[in-house]
Amino acid sequence: MNEPPSAQEGSANTDDLTAEALVASGSAMDWPAIESRLDSINTGLEDLRHLLSAGRATLKKRFMSGSPTGELVTDFAQLVDLVILAAWNRSAAALEEVALVAVGGFGRGELHPYSDIDLLILLPKLAREKRKAAGDQVAIFLTTLWDIGLEV
Known about the structure:
The chain is mostly helical. The protein is built from seven helices and two strands, in the order αααααβαβα.
């Protein structure tokens, strides 16, 4: 019987992913490397999905090795924040006078592994033709988040 793809992934694949997101000691996220990767990639869906997977694998490895959960939920929130900003820049950054606000646990900088992400998008009062264009860009942004595996 075939197992789902996630069950078939070996530890080598997980080790490759975690190597991308951990400092050499393996005890913390390598934020400069993660930010550099976000700056250097095209921020396509596969790149964002891969970076999110690498971060999740890293956090799981740290959890299994006994890292404090407070650090892990803070680090996960920071990782998701960076990924969301990259997705925003990819799809909706051209919107003028718009605020993207993190609320709830995510807004407090605490995000558990399977938590949903609460976002508030504030738009100015727009003329009808601009409202449709802004709505389309916001829809592309939200679809990007869903497509990379974030529950918004």
